[in-house]
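Hey,
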Amino acid sequence: MRISQPIYFILSFFMFSILSQANAQEVIKGKVIDAVSRQPLEAASIAPISTGAPATFTDQYGNFTIKSNTKEPFTIAVSFVGYVADTVTVSGTGPLWITLQPGVVDLKDVVVLQNNQSTKFTTLSKIDLDLKPVRNTQELLRLVPGLFIAQHAGGGKAEQIFLRGFDCDHGTDVQVSVDEMPVNMVSHAHGQGYADSHFIIAETINNIDFGAGPYYTQHGNLNTAGYVAFSTFNSIPQSRIQVEAGRFNSFRTLALIDLLKKNKDRQSAYIAADYNYTNGPTVNKQDFRRLNLFGKYNLAISPATQLTASVSSFTSKWNASGQVPERAVKSGMIDRFGSIDPTEGGNTERHNANILLAHQFNSGTTWENQLFYSRYLFNLYSDFTFFLNDPVNGDEINQAEYRNIYGYSSTVKHSASIGNWTLHSIYGTGLRYDATTNSQLAHVVKRQFLENIKLGDIREANAFGFIQQQVSGGKLFIDAGLRFDYLHFSYFDKLNTSQLPAQGKSIVSPKINIQYTINPQVQLFVKAGKGFHSNDTRVVIANRGQQILPAAYGGDLGITLKPNNKLLLNIAAWYLYLDQEFVYAGDDGNIEPSGKTRREGIDVIARYQFNSHLFANANINFTRPRAIGKIKGQDYIPLAPTATSTGGLFYKAKRGFNGGLSYRFIKNRPANEDNSIVAKGYFLLDGSINYTQQRYEIGIALENIFNTKWNEAQFATESRLQNEPFPVTELNFTPGTAFFARIKFAVFF
């Protein structure tokens, strides 16, 4: 589904040139904050009660503007999910400072009239986070509707991600960020877009912004199937010390300490630390250790200027049992939780610094500047084929790299009122530079070096700029954007005396989103856009810059329904086309060409509130993924999900007992092109119950309540076991965790 760029340019130019020349009407400015943490509330609803003016919503700094259509005092209703709604009388044009008290979660506070579809989903994630507290980034990712994950290296490796019919591997087709700092690693030693989010402490996450498809102007490289953007608290509501212990010799300690409890309107600071250990369910003990440290500081330099700075550090070390062939388990050679090569595993670390400076001018224009730096180390030992290539030493490999990432972005946002219309303009530019040293693929035996297969230094830069125009008035909302990305690739091959030249490539990505609100119960939307993911630098150089920025073209047609205050439905039918690409297979160092693909499907998001304490949710996703140009029956896309669903039933009270049951379901799906090998689906049920008081909380969590035997990660792999005369291609899998129970005790102060 390609967008006609001439039509797009005409539409954008017409909207901008006509509307931007109008004089903005006088408006009243205000800000909405949390009464306890003093943190700004994004997407709070501001609805004039008596003037008949449309509702507006706060931005990420809690700021809003409303039109002053009368000189007489009037009343506005202010509401936000999880807070006690309030009414405020407006008289004059002075700035308003509104504080909301934390309260109970109520679905009625999710407003269909919101102009931005992604803001509505962000509000939903606030509900999901409140109903189901999480303890790691795996559980954070599972909160994203339509997104499925699998872990296959003892908890130390980035998760395998599935979204909208894509096996995104570890992040190739889904962009992940935290506080606008990228998580994905381009041209990674293990795979393109590798997104290891384990450096995030789950309890520091305040919100999750997400979107499916390539329709979002501010999200560039790797945003094809979708994006996930985490944001941390600027100020925590209270300090916490927490201890957890569970099966498989698992334990965790967590500390969240508020450093500045006074004068939070001017400055706030907190630190967090998280330590995890487990042996896991496998016969070969994982000896998994992970330490996370995080600190964040906010300063209001002036009423109009805000500084936010954060630092984090993460180290992890583990052993892994790897993927095992079905035949080895069926023959009794090993236990289901056994291992062919018990020397798999690795270690990794990442250290980050992130600074954001934002200033709001008197005109209402906001200027944001962000600077970030990451230092990253990765070292992984894997064995997928056992004795296929080397019948004497085996096929174990070592993938490793050392990387520095530098990034800067600048964004200008401006809003203007033009009669009954509002124009919100966003202009952005930025640069990301990855300098990777000794990106390595080596043949090893029991973690001892034998020979290098690939070794080199990678330099990759991504410069970008974008323009986004959002026009809203009455029942109509139009969001049109245009993005430009330029990527530069260079590779110094340390195993080759002759070097290939560096390559550069650019791509232009138009996007458009249109919403039409029929009434407060029904809203229609259509989305169309172009996205892309860059290929690995080694592919780009080897292919001499040809076909190295495969584009994705997509379209959504959907409806949002809120027939009453208890039910919310979002239904979308979608289509996504992906261009020709070349893939670097990090596990063997080869370049694998693949053709064009298409995916079409239906996504359903449902939320229901039975009463003030009882909630239910469900996310249902159907997809038909196919390769283009292949013979029917030979055109399946390996591991692409065709049907998934997540959801649950939750009881939430401010004090006393809380808890819930949640499920995960994925249907059987092809593991190879002709569907002769099938990746097995599963249904899992988890549960938790907590007893919460003002100063403490105790709880128990249960995973895989029915002790289901399930395969977490699955691949159709050609392998050969020791002394086997011939290789065998069959399903190799990592067993999913058996029944797991853990208890926790937390103290608040």
